[in-house]
Amino acid sequence: MEPSVSTPAGPTGDDWPDVVWYEVFQRCNYKTINEAEKACSQFTRITDDNGFWRDHCERDGITLPPPHAVKLAHIKGHDFDYRYLYSCADTGGVDPYGQNILRNVPVNPAVAEAYGEYWMRYHARNCTYESPPVGYNATPEMPTEALATSFIRGFRSILVNLEKAGIEPWVLDKLRPAIVARERHAPRFDCSAVYNFAAQVRKEDEIYPHTLVRWLGKPDASRGDIRETHYPQWAKQPWKTEEILIADYGFGMRNVLVSSTAKDNQFWAGNYGMKFTDTELQLVFPEKLEWNDTEDAAPVDFDETLSEPDDYEYDAFGRHVMYNFISDDEDDDYEDQESVNFSDDYDAEDVDYDEDGDEEEESE
To answer: Region Disordered: what ranges (predicted)?
Structure first.
């Protein structure tokens, strides 16, 4: 009879006290912890503690909500869900309460569009990635990379779902932190250019214009703003930071759309238009926070019956031919409007433009 061979048993959950497993799990990512919870009740007991996830956020450098916001929320019967915060931050590569929610979003459109995080949508057109930016004397203040534009209007838009990024809905509805969008921009030293920067908050079920933040009428300050800046030739303008503060938005806002458009004003071939980079999005909790119990109806600054088309067309300057968007009832009338499209039978190089950007008519 052969002697039996025993294999030393590894430690089970009950062999180690909670404090040991606590430290082990503090060094694991969210996916690992989520799977480990299925093993035994001891693991579930440890990870059910909201304080465990608060400590895990701190350990991994995830910014916590400010203490005065935590205190006010607790008084009102709400506590921040640190597990939710950690899960979104760890799996989505985002720090929602940090200095810049867009910190990890690449500047290069080819890389950014493949970034693919579920909490944001990225779209760019007619923008060229430059590293370093061309047309400047190198200085310590100059950014290392930027998007450059040409005589065809270039644009870039980023739609952020704050809830999916880790901000709980009640935080946006009850505490309503200010939302700040920033971006650096500058023209080349040798070419006149124009630059637009815009930010707008939206409800989750509101339509998403494919390109730009646009209002049908005057912009509603509670929803955001649009800034336009013109620079003359030989401006030698240093890099400037544009900032938009959205502080008085209403109930139910979940998305923030940040968009930038730019072009040169002299219609030169090449990337002589405005450049922009270092886009930031941040939540700011004022020292004197107020609790909002009223589910007020947020102001509507556009017709919610507007529809987004399946096929997008652009004119010769990169402008969306549905720039202000049209309702279904107006669709028939819109088909009669003229537009210039880059289709297979249209060669943009054969078109001449006057100083206002309009096509020159052929002389008979």
So the answer is: 328-364
